[in-house]
């Protein structure tokens, strides 16, 4: 008997395989492996895999090497462990033969071209008519709707992130460097029980705040300049992501102006967000607020993204490629304005989509309203 929540997830996934006329699916993405099996190992690099799942309509296998054998047996007891010592070519042909695979799904957007061709060759070695079919986003269709247990884990991860930012917030002062503050965040998340940061923290002061994905430097923070803090933790496998912009002392007139515009854009988007809405529409609401203020060209990224086992996952909330939002999606709302050589402001909340609106998951304010 397969344990929950993996039994329900496998059942739903097998239904998708049937709908897509796939005989089996080879799972390579670490978050997807965990989602279906409970196997926790991560891939150190794209070219170094810690394992694969092979799922058919009746069977499920976990393929890995001896380094992870015990972890596989302990973490995914409902999967049959298949151990290889010289790569997946050692075991895939026999598996393909035993389960009679003709149409094999895979995550083509994750596999390298070399690995894709290798798997395709192994499949056709056992069945010349075999087809390797990219099924990108198939498991993500399930992951995008969060289960109650997942939502609680996301809440806990965000609580940790907020507590660390609040403690660091109290120590910010002119003379501190971006790197020192970023290290305080990373250390705090680790010491607070987090497995890791969900991404390297962004601390960007002054002109560096005009760079949406700035890397912390040795630059010293000065009074009156904006400092963007973008951080997140990973706790019990689930990620969080939030951004606030800090200013020491009085705002300059320009920074005060764009701060107000960004906050208004965030609130406008949150007020309109609910199940049934198109994500493009929500992005457009925030973009219109910023555009009317004259800063449309200074907001270049999407309004938000999904968060769960990965810090960036579906759905995207941006100008193109719309998604109809559904209950229990968890997304960020993070408008920003970036002025080259001056600075920038970004504000980010995590929200849970509901049938009547959205629930802002953040408790900490840290806004200059």
Defining traits:
elongated; Creatine Amidinohydrolase; six-stranded mixed sheet; alpha+beta
Mean pLDDT: 96
Report the count of strand segments.
19
Low-confidence stretches: none
SS element count, helices: 10
The proportion of strand residues reads 15-25%
CATH topology of the largest domain: Creatine Amidinohydrolase
For this structure, the quaternary state is: single chain
Summarize the structure.
This protein is an alpha+beta fold.
Q: How would you characterize the overall build of this protein?
A:
The structure is a single chain. The protein is of the alpha+beta class and 369 residues long. The chain folds into two domains: 137 residues, 3-Layer(aba) Sandwich (Creatine Amidinohydrolase, Chain A, domain 1), CATH 3.40.350; 217 residues, Creatine Amidinohydrolase (Alpha-Beta Complex). The chain contains ten helices and 19 strands. Strands 4-3-2-1-5-6 form a six-stranded mixed beta sheet, with helices on both faces. The protein has a three-stranded antiparallel beta sheet with strand order 7-10-11. Helix 4 packs across helix 5, helix 7 crosses helix 8 and helix 9 runs antiparallel to helix 10. The model has no long low-confidence stretch (mean pLDDT 96).
SSE topology:
Blueprint: H1 6-19, E1 24-27, H2 30-37, E2 52-56, E3 60-64, H3 69-75, E4 80-83, H4 92-99, E5 103-106, H5 113-126, E6 131-134, H6 138-143, H7 148-169, H8 178-191, E7 196-197, E8 202-205, E9 226-231, E10 233-235, E11 238-239, E12 242-247, H9 253-272, H10 279-292, E13 304-306, E14 313-317, E15 330-333, E16 336-339, E17 343-346, E18 349-353, E19 358-360
Parallel strand pairs: 1-5, 3-4, 5-6
Antiparallel strand pairs: 1-2, 2-3, 7-10, 8-9, 9-12, 10-11, 13-14, 15-18, 16-17, 18-19
């Amino acid at each position: 008997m397969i344990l929950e929540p993996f039994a329900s997830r496998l059942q739903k996934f097998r239904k998708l395989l049937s709908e897509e006329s796939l005989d089996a699916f080879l799972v390579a993405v670490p978050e997807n492996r965990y989602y279906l099996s409970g196997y926790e190992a991560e891939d150190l690099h794209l070219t170094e895999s810690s394992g694969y799942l092979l799922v058919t309509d009746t069977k499920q296998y976990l393929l890995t090497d001896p380094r992870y054998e015990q972890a596989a047996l302990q973490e995914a007891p409902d999967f049959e462990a298949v151990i290889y010592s010289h790569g997946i070519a050692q075991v895939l042909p026999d598996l393909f033969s035993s389960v009679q695979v003709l149409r094999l799904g895979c995550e083509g957007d994750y596999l390298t071209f070399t690995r894709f061709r290798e798997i395709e060759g192994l499949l056709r070695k056992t069945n010349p008519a075999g087809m390797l079919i990219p099924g990108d986003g198939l498991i993500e269709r399930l992951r995008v709707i969060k289960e109650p247990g997942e939502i609680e884990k996301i809440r806990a991860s965000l609580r940790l992130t907020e507590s660390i930012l609040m403690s660091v917030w109290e120590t910010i002062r002119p003379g501190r460097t971006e790197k020192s503050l970023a290290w305080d965040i990373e250390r705090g998340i680790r010491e607070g029980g987090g497995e890791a940061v969900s991404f390297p923290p962004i601390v960007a002061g002054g002109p560096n705040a005009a760079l949406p994905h700035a890397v912390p430097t040795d630059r010293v923070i000065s009074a009156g300049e904006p400092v963007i803090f973008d951080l997140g933790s990973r706790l019990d496998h689930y990620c969080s992501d939030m951004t606030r912009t800090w200013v020491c002392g009085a705002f300059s007139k320009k920074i005060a102006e764009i701060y107000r515009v960004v906050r208004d854009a965030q609130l406008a988007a949150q007020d309109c967000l609910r199940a049934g809405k198109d994500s493009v529409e929500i992005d457009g609401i925030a973009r219109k607020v910023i555009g009317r203020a004259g800063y449309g060209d200074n907001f270049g990224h999407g309004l938000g993204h999904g968060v769960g086992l990965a810090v960036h996952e579906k759905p995207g909330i941006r100008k193109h490629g719309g998604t109809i939002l559904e209950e229990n999606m968890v997304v960020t709302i993070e408008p920003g304005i970036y002025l080259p050589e001056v600075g920038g402001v970004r504000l980010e909340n995590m929200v849970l989509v509901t049938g009547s609106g959205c629930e802002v998951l953040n408790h900490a304010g840290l806004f200059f309203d």
